[in-house]
Amino acid sequence: MNKYFSKIYPKYLNKEIVLLLLFISIIVIIQIISQYRESKINIKIKKNNIRSSYGGDNNTMLEKPADNIQELIVEGFENDIVAIEQTHRLCPVMEGNVTHQIDSIQYPNNNMKGLPGSVEKCFYVSTCCNHCLSQIQESLRKSPDNRVYDIIYKDNYYILTKNGEEKQVVFPCDKDGILELIKEHSGIR
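RESULT FIELD:
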């Protein structure tokens, strides 16, 4: 082996120095590889607040009942923005009044029509005043049979109902970016 070793390396390098350099270079390579694995690739995913509604084409509809109350009938939506623009402009309590505030309501630990099991969530609702907000919250605290207002789950949306009639799409408070979206598209500042 000395015969081959001396052909490859000059005489001033001895075998121990070469092995030491080889060992050091292996350690440096391992260190570089381990630092590469430690570095985390940071991928940011922007959630899309717009999703297609179940049910197809232009199913949304505004209807005016015969008594001239500007009442909104909720039917279906293309996305969250359309749902906000069409249901968060009029108060679900004092039908016809323009909404001026966005607040949260607590759905008590009850079964919700359209979902299995009990639900305890907080939802954003747009109303014209604190009195209307209180009426909705007080109604939700009553037993399901005695409620004027309730929330149901239908076609991937939570919908506030009044006497069984769908009035406003409400969004869970924990949904990313939804409060800003409601403020931007409901006309409430």
